[in-house]
Amino acid sequence: MTSDRTLEAPFELKGSLFTLTVLRLHESDLAAIGAALDAKVAQAPGLFVHHPVVIDLDDLPVAAPPPDFAQLAAMLRQHGMVPVGVRHGSEAASSAAVAAGLALLPESRPAMRRSDVRDEESGVAAAEVLPATVQPTAVAHNRIIATQVRSGQQIYAADGDLTVLGAVSAGAEVLADGSIHVYGSLKGKALAGVKGNTAARIFCHGLEAELVSVAGRYRTIEKGDSEWEQAVQIYLAGENLIIEPLVLETSGHRKL
Amino acid sequence: MAKIIVVTSGKGGVGKTTTSASFATGLALRGFKTVVIDFDVGLRNLDLIMGCERRVVYDFVNVINGEAALNQALIKDKRVETLYVLPASQTRDKDALEQSGVERVLDELRQSFDYIICDSPAGIERGAMMAMYFADEALVTTNPEVSSVRDSDRILGILASKSRRAVQAEEPVKEHLVLTRYAPERVERGDMLSVDDVMEILAIPLLGVIPESSAVLQSSNSGVPVILEETTDAGSAYADLVARFLGEERPHRFLTTEKKGFFKRLFGN
Q: Checking DSSP bridges between strand A180-186 and strand A202-207, what pairing results, if any?
């Protein structure tokens, strides 16, 4: 194995993740911003010393002109903060920020942008959706658990299917990016397609689950439901979570 | 090589200490040199059940802290030749059970004993974790009711993932189910889970079923492990349990209601 990394190199470039404070501007009037900064810093002097901040323009009214970035940066430094960059600016604002020596930071994920959320009507089913990112993952790393999954245990098959040969006890949780198969009775929680794979399914021999979920759509099961203790498969049809008995119609000689 | 056996349950009040005392006494009666350790630091009971509460001078925590030698703290049972008790401290808390200290004491006990029985406190906190961590085998004590069964399930999960054997990827801890306070007439009425119900949920081999019995309370109050009351139902059930543990075949008793004869029905018990 060869490596282009040598110890003699004067430096190494690596990507890394940081949590930064975001300063969301509601207006571009520097006098008003300055007064508000004075008040904020007075509340907690020392808290913002050498504190890196990102200027977010997402909340600025569309018609408002971008602030004077050179003056804004100087003002932030006076208050002890270190401005590192700008995001969510218009084209003109972005080039003005670059001219003032600030970095351009990537946009946050579309769903995170407040301006979009504001326009969107909140769906009725929103409360029934667990947070899940939307990209389906390639199913490759399958996991097999040969024993029982006990109360309090949590088993997760990342990037693949999960097969449990024993039972999943009440109070246990099984999760997979792909599908879940349980050969014992399923009494705990089963969450398939946790990263948003809507084609994921749950299969089990005896459904007594506390909760089943596919790609964030979930349902609780009660004793006395028609599917109780039945062999079923659970999948998504559009927005609906379908629980369907497993019936082998092809085997003519088999009586169920 | 000594075997370390933890008596555990998760839930409190199901009969861990009663089982520890009778199991240890039963092994000692068969001639094995046996010590039973109380891990319930701060809430010690084992000494009462074993009837040696007046003889506690030094305790487990003293030995861990190096304040006493092991043989100063070990209490030799007056009834059974090869039985010893290592009592818990009543004035300390579970934080005193420091892992390297517990390991050192257990290693020293391994030198001279055949069986080391660890009486676990309830819960899944430090005391219970320490009692479980070094175990080779486990007696999971369960009452036939849903909350006790679920807690035992949780304990089985911890044994399978957090014990020393699990952490070091050795052969897993051998698990045994001990069903205590079993009342067949209440099972028949549907008030209690049956043996089969519990077995279905926990899916581990059944070592013994101990019937609900007034003998347990009486012997506890008089400081005699119930296994020494050979004529009682609970005592003989524990004797069967020990025999099964040592590999003997014994049919399970006390699983069905006693058919009451004419005179019994007439005169009661």
A: parallel
Contacts A–B by Cβ distance under 8 A = 33
Q: Which residues of A touch B157 (CB under 8 A)?
A: 149-153, 169, 172
Has residue A124 got a pLDDT over 50? no
Interface predicted TM-score (ipTM) of this complex, two decimals = 0.72
In this structure, is residue A113 part of a structural domain?
A: no
Fold entry, domain B3-266: Rossmann fold (3.40.50)
Judged by CB atoms closer than 8 Å, whether chains meet at A150 and B160 is answered as yes
For residue A190, the domain's CATH number is 2.160.20.70
b vs e for B44-70, b when ≥16 Cβ sit within 10 Å of the residue's Cβ? bbbbebbbbbeebebbbbbbbeeebeb
Which of A145, A150, A164, A187 best probes binding to B when mutated, by most B CB atoms within 10 angstroms? A150
| Residue A112 included in any domain | no
Q: What is the pLDDT of residues B170-216, one digit of tens each?
A: 999 999 999 999 999 999 999 999 999 999 999 999 999 999 999 99
Distance from CA of A154 to the nearest CA of B (A): 10
Q: Indicate the pTM of the whole model.
A: 0.67
What is the tens place of the pLDDT at every residue in A68-94? 888 888 888 888 888 888 888 888 888
| CB proximity B147 to A under 8 Å | no
